[in-house]
Design a protein that fits this description.
alpha/beta, beta-glucosidase activity, Ig-like_fold, three-stranded antiparallel beta sheet, five-stranded parallel beta sheet, about 20% helix, beta-glucosidase
């Protein structure tokens, strides 16, 4: 049996990011050694991967970062040098995993459709256990529950707004932020907010039942309760409940976040759909959960 090799290629942009990235690589390296069938190699750093090293590996992991911090916000939707690193690794390795560390939306158009890029690990800010977490997910020891908290667009112009760094900014987009903007203008994203892949699959029932809990509230056009933190008090009254079933149809136990969206009549001049509830459920393999 051939011994699998795992390569890691590193890319960093600023001194404040170097420590976190190096720590993650060290932890990733040590964690991977738990699998006695794997041989781990560090194939270069600072955007200069070793081609000879990569060519003998069965899996290659390319790390790219987005620099951000207090007073220095995420200011780029892509980085040409980092994208070139991902493309370079993928050009020599037909099983390339891109680990993308960012604090906001990030375009991936330059390499995401490359047949040799087999997975993208999209993470937030790194910490001292990031390497362990990555290995647990990559080896399938843990079923990742993470979902995108923002939309990944096809192109920069799809967002409909520009990145700005002025001290005073007018939010002319109003309530149509991120996925709400994409819905309003029927723009197809590359990956929608809430997207994420698991090591298993879930099957939702076609049968959804709704029970009205407050008929009087349904007759009102606007909330009429007393003013409170966050708005009128009766904004938070339960008007109806919705039930359905979800089945883990895969091979391992997992958790799923079930989301409820509501559409509005045209006269309301509201969002095409709005998130009105969600619930995380732990589902045993092949079991059916009602929620």
């Amino acid at each position: 049996m051939k011994t699998p090799h795992i390569a890691g290629a590193e890319q960093v942009r600023a001194s404040t990011a170097i420590a976190d990235t190096k720590q993650t690589l060290r932890t990733l390296y040590k964690s991977a050694l738990r699998n006695s069938q794997a041989a781990v190699r560090l194939c270069g750093r600072s955007g200069q991967p070793s081609v000879m090293c990569i060519r003998v590996c069965d899996v290659c992991i390319a790390f790219i970062n987005a620099y951000s911090g207090e007073g220095t916000d995420h200011s780029l939707l892509y980085n040409e040098e980092q994208d070139n690193l991902a493309k370079e690794v993928a050009s020599y390795c037909n099983n390339t995993v891109v680990v993308l560390t960012t604090t906001g939306p990030r375009l991936v158009a330059q390499w995401i459709e490359n047949d040799n890029v087999t997975a993208v690990f999209y993470t937030g800010a790194l910490d001292h256990v990031s390497g362990h977490a990555m290995i647990d997910v990559l080896y399938g020891d843990v079923n990742a529950l993470g979902r995108l908290v923002h939309t990944i667009a096809m192109t920069e112009t799809d967002y409909g707004v520009e990145l700005r760094d002025e001290s005073v900014i007018k939010y002319i987009e109003g309530k149509y932020l991120d996925w709400k903007y994409f819905d309003k203008y029927n723009t197809t994203p590359r990956h929608e907010s809430g997207y994420g892949l698991l090591h298993t699959t879930f099957c939702y029932s076609n049968k959804v039942s709704a029970t009205i809990k407050n008929h009087n509230a349904l007759e009102l056009t606007y909330a009429q309760g007393a003013n409170a933190e966050g708005g009128k008090e009766d904004l938070w009254d339960i008007v109806a409940t919705v039930s359905t079933t979800v089945t883990d149809s895969g091979d391992i136990d997992a958790a799923e976040v079930v989301q409820l969206y509501m559409s509005y009549p045209a006269a309301a001049n509201e969002l095409a759909r709005g998130l009105r509830g969600f619930e995380k459920v732990n589902v045993t393999n092949q079991a059916v959960n009602r929620l």
